[in-house]
Amino acid sequence: MTKDILVLGGGIAGIQSSLDLAEMGFKVHLVESLPSIGGKMAQLDKTFPTNDCAI
Amino acid sequence: MNTHTLTPYEAPRIGVFVCDCGSNIAGHLDCPDVAEYAKTLPHVVYVKENLYTCSEAGIGEIKKAITEQNLTRVVVASCSPRTHQPLFSSSCAEVGLNPYLFEMVNIRDQCSWVHMGTRDAATQKAKELICMGVAKSAGLEALNEIESSLIRKILVIGGGIAGLSAAQALGDMGLDVILVEKTASLGGLLQQVHQLDSGVMAKEALSQIIDDVRSQSNITCYTSATVTETGGYIGNYDVKIETQTGLVEEQVGCMVVATGAVPLIPEGILGYDGRQVISLMQLEQLLQRDKLDAKRVVFIQCAGARTPEREYCSRICCMIGVKNAMLIKDKYPLTDVRVLYRDMQMYGTHKEQMLWDARGKGIRFDVYTPDNPPEVENGKVTFFQAVTGKTQELDADLVVLSTPLVPRNDSGKLANMLRVPTDQNGFFLEAHAKLRPLDFAADGIFVCGSGRYPATSTEARTQGIGVASRVAAILFKEKLVKSAIVAQINPDACVGCMACLPMCPYEAITYNRDKRICEVNEVLCKGCGNCAATCPSHSAMLRGFKPQQLLAQIGAA
């Protein structure tokens, strides 16, 4: 069984899954249809309620 | 790895990289002039200006220069260390330079951004900042990351759907789990629930998960048990559990808080009597036992919730109310079912549709306002119809008060024991509302389910499985590795005054009675430097920010 993992979609959900899986020691292939990862969150300025910069 | 801690006779070879940050820096100060100046600084043997130092090209330049110029120190003058220090220092490490021999100078947030329009002065300040950074970097020491062992076992506190799901997922990953449940049976609040909105009976869904958890040999379940003591740190927690058969001592690597919440018993609210005026959980039990006998049912939402004493919205009661209103209407179509509400909270993929379906089945929804709450007396519900402006009276055989979930009264005690925070309502508080929703700020401790905030069974299960992923990301590693930027106390100089003890927010310092000195636990230390700033004998120091390093930096200013 090959243990590499394919994650489809590079928004916040896909990125967090990829990070956790990589931390566990798996090789992850993250595929995003757009030129950059980040998804909807990358388009936000601040996040509620902490006012952290979204990007 | 080449550690490059200098012998007294060896001069450092410093490389300086000046970042334009596109126009963020270069637009407001003269970067080529700053780079030229950097070449004149002591021990600087290489200087490069980059359009974006953090880009692949910029990182490539750093790596190339370390190898070709045999650099023993790297200084990047760009943005805040909060954004890119990890990237730069790990890039140094990739080509064999100890990552702690990297120094960052902030000429964006602390220079170009705050001195827009004063180009000459900003250029001068950038030069001075770089001069200080270079002076500090010359005195940097190679440090080794701190490693500690990991115990691949997890303590899950709470055997409701969240805790069960976490235990099940962790068990499936092959990790050892200890599940501690305070009551005599596993299942939590869901045991009292009749039917889920998916149509599945709650007990059936629950028993599948419980059976699976019970059948896994690497999961140990303790029921009628409580965690009485915890100590230690991530990877190495010591816990004591009071069980039916006596005290059990265990060592675990991570801990999961899945203690849930309890439904408010609405004593003194809207005529609650437990018979004709009941709470939403009592209705679940009536339905579970098929004992419902009413021709006219009125649900009152937000009973005891969103009030001055309990300001939060419990979120799940609207969905439970609508679910049960529909169940009653489906089973007894002639029953008159009405719902009095303030706002309907029906989020998620199917719940909004549920509300429309409920209206379609003939369930009547009327809005009331908090300044004119309904009154319940002698089988009658009187309420002010906000839309028509008229007061209406409804006959009711059964009034169901949709009450919120409230934190357990002993959750504060658990929070103190684990040293984790709670919010203003008494629910456990996660590390970051958006980015770390399942982590506590304390490393190695996690939260899931209604202990954090009222959650639907789906949400509690999702969070439980999510926590398993967060735990596995730690425990699947060979060992724990953390930053070497931690405090150290010189045992020869420490007089044991204990001034540093109360200053440490992480309780990483302890007093050694035998040696009469204070000692730092490097795994617990987060490198805040409070102890170093407090220590009257200068025996506490923060690695990477030692007095001689900081004095060199200040002296260059």
Descriptive account of the structure:
The complex is a heterodimer of chains A (55) and B (557). With 55 residues, chain A is of the alpha+beta class. Chain A has one domain (3-51). Chain A contains one helix and four strands, in the order βαβββ. Chain A has one helix spanning 12-23; strands at residues 5-8, 28-31, 46-47, 52-53. A two-stranded parallel sheet of chain A has the order 1-2. A two-stranded antiparallel ribbon of chain A has the order 3-4. In chain A, strand 3 and strand 4 form a beta hairpin. Chain A starts with a strand and ends with a strand. The relative contact order of chain A is 0.23. The mean pLDDT of chain B is 94. In chain B, helix 1 runs parallel beside helix 5. In chain B, strand 3 (73-78), helix 3 (81-94) and strand 4 (102-106) form a beta-alpha-beta unit. Chain B has 14 helices and 28 strands. With 557 residues, chain B is α/β, with parallel strands linked by helices. Chain B is elongated and about 95 Å long. In chain B, the strands form nine sheets. A five-stranded parallel beta sheet of chain B has the order 8-7-6-12-23. A five-stranded parallel beta sheet of chain B has the order 14-21-15-16-17. A four-stranded parallel beta sheet of chain B has the order 2-1-3-4, with helices on both faces. In chain B, 29% of the residues lie in helices and 24% in strands. Chains A and B meet through helix 1 of A and helix 12 of B.
